[in-house]
Amino acid sequence: MEIVYVYVKKRSKFGKQCNFSDRQAELNIDIPPNPELAKQFVERNPVDTGIQCSTSMSEHEANTERFEMETRGVNHIEGGWPKDVNPLELEQTIRFRKKVEKDENYINTIMQLGSIMEHCIKQNNAIDIYQEYFDDEDAVEVMEEAPSAKTINVFRDPQEIKRPATHISWHPDGNRKLAVAYSCLNFQRAPEGMSNESYIWDLGEKQRGPVAREG
């Protein structure tokens, strides 16, 4: 979409020519200085001001070169079939393929593309992915036993009213200490007298017992 706005202005609308004449000086107003107001100002020295060296114009316009644009699109469904061949009809496509395969240009094109493909295939075959590079390496024995787990120790809540553990945190300097926090999972239904203490278990000193933390 091209955006254009055209307007016409008469020369008389620009204003009339200035015609100056000499006359005596005329005093329109005389305001004496006010010392009180002068105290509120400071003389600025030096003074910086900007100037423009371009030519002054009464009117200026600029119009860039018109650039024509066009939008095109292609709907590609299947292959480059001619107009008289329906790609949805299997018999028509087979008949057209047989006709093209007998053309000499088709054979030459296939031979040319085949050489390029052969070069790429040879690049992939340059490395034997089945070669054994480390013959002296001992074979890893495969464990045929089923995986299993066993319980080493059980840490129970020392309180009389048992609480489920809601958070477990290991000590950052090692796996010797374990902090466990307990709470009631039923919202606002905690039993009366239930403790809110958390415990720190020392795995190296099992007989010593946990250290309680209020929170």
Automatic annotation (TrEMBL):
Tell me where in or outside the cell this protein is found.
Cytoplasm, Cytoskeleton, Cilium axoneme
Q: Which processes are annotated in GO (biological process)?
A: cilium movement; outer dynein arm assembly
Q: Which PANTHER family match?
A: DYNEIN AXONEMAL INTERMEDIATE CHAIN 2 (PTHR12442:SF7), DYNEIN INTERMEDIATE CHAIN (PTHR12442)
Matching InterPro entries: Dynein_IC
* Keyword hit for Cytoplasm: yes
Q: Which family does it belong to?
A: Belongs to the dynein intermediate chain family.
Q: What keywords tag this UniProt record?
A: Cell projection, Cilium, Cytoplasm, Cytoskeleton, Dynein, Microtubule, Motor protein, Repeat, WD repeat
Descriptive protein name:
Dynein intermediate chain 2, axonemal
Look up and give the organism this protein is from.
Answer: Eschrichtius robustus
Q: Name one GO molecular function term.
A: dynein heavy chain binding
Whether Cytoplasm counts among this entry's keywords is yes
User: Which GO cellular component terms, listed alphabetically, does the Swiss-Prot or TrEMBL entry include?
Assistant: microtubule; outer dynein arm
